[in-house]
Inverse folding.
């Protein structure tokens, strides 16, 4: 393991992603009943998911509905709906990935991908995190 | 379902709780490698868990290790380590529980319990939330 680091790499929880069998029903629960305001809905064609982001006071709840076969549809088949991953915003995603790589933590993405709006993202394999699928974000400045 | 509500009931994500098989190893990963600062460790004798809270920029990562048989140990046996629940801070927990009850959402705690430091807390059953064990906190003012 690496030495203790100053708490500068992770800035906050960007979002918690929840796999759902029905995006409308998910929005009804989280918006109408729990009172989270809907930020936006978007189809992420590259990943085969429809998403809804709801504001949770500095973090977001992301609802994930797979419209084709992919990792999220497999998750739903195997485990049913529930928390799919947690995403942390970091200030330097490549430095974080290099650090994890050198500690032999298995990475789903060895280098960051670039998504909508220029954000960089990468996933860490649950085998390396104690069973948690972790996403990292670095947002454009 | 209830009518749409203003986004005043949920204030933020207080913490994400992760069930671990080894609290020391969990702290090594989340503190030393991911860089989250350790806020405190505490035994919650009433619930049979040892906990470690790490700061994640306004929210926390809570590591949960069961030192006796309980819901967390059953979770670990059944699913292995991973995200156990998500906790939202609300401004009025009794009002939120009443609203959920009237919408026939199954509650693990029909009324709030009072924990360390006077915080009120209650759990919502995953059957009512789309597979997510949700905890609510109301913190003392």
């Amino acid at each position: 393991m690496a030495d203790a680091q100053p708490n500068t790499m992770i800035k906050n929880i960007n979002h918690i992603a929840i796999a759902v069998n029905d995006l409308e029903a998910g929005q009804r629960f989280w918006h109408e009943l729990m009172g989270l305001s809907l930020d936006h809905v978007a189809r992420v064609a590259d990943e085969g998911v429809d998403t809804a982001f709801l504001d949770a006071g500095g973090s977001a709840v992301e609802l994930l509905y797979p419209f084709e076969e992919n990792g999220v549809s497999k998750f739903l088949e195997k485990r049913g709906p529930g928390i799919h991953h947690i995403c942390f915003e970091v200030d330097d995603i490549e430095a974080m990935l290099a650090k994890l790589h050198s500690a032999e933590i298995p990475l789903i993405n060895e280098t960051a991908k670039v998504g909508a709006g220029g954000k960089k993202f990468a996933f860490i394999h649950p085998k390396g995190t104690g069973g948690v699928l972790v996403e990292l974000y670095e947002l454009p400045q």
Remarks:
- Chain B touches chain A through 51 residues (CB under 8 Å).
- The radius of gyration of chain B is 15 Å.
- Helices of chain B lie at 23-33, 71-79, 93-102.
- The CA atoms of residues 30 and 60 of chain B lie 11 Å apart.
